[in-house]
Amino acid sequence: MENLFLVCLIPPAPIVEDIDEIRNNISEKYSVFESLKRPAHITLYNPVKISSYEQEKKFFKVLEDASYLDAFEQVLRNFSSFAPHTVYIDVVQNDNIMKLQAQIKAALKPLNIIPAKDVMKFTPHLTIAFKDVKLPVYQLIMDEYKDKNFKRTFTVSGFSVYKHLDKRWRPYKEFPFKNPDGQPKALSLFD
């Protein structure tokens, strides 16, 4: 058994439709299609391979433990890039999205499912073109999008796990936020 999972935020359907329109326009105009193989999403943790049922149970248990957070507003604004190959919609950093990602990362760290060298600094973004974007095409896309305005706001009240099945990322499990005041406290000899 080997499964590939992605921990992410999926914006509401109307925003995903707007993003997919942009991604489809870029794909048609510039012949880049890789981003269409994935849902419009904000990655919270690099995709991970889980190779045993026991490891999978632990994976989902620690994600459940990381879901104690208050809902928050998230803004997507304008376009940016990781030169010279990735174009994205900027996910405006705020304390809440950074805290959510940090909680997930901290919860998953003891499982050692991603080597420490592969854990990258978290820069929240929503990719609209990457991987099959070559430098000349990257420059054309950025020339077109760098000054365009885009702004959407949505409430984040949980996160998702997608599973890679039949060469596609498919929704697998939702983790709605739970009241942080209800989070079990670690036992201590000194309380």
Automatic annotation (TrEMBL):
**Pfam families in the record:** 2_5_RNA_ligase2
Say which domain of life the source belongs to.
Answer: Bacteria
- Keywords for this protein: Ligase
- What are the recorded GO MF terms, alphabetically? ligase activity
**Keyword Ligase among UniProt keywords:** yes
The protein's matches in PANTHER family, at most eight in alphabetical order, are given as: PHOSPHOESTERASE SAOUHSC_00951-RELATED, PHOSPHOESTERASE YJCG-RELATED
> Under what name is this protein listed?
2'-5' RNA ligase family protein
Organism the protein comes from:
Pedobacter rhodius
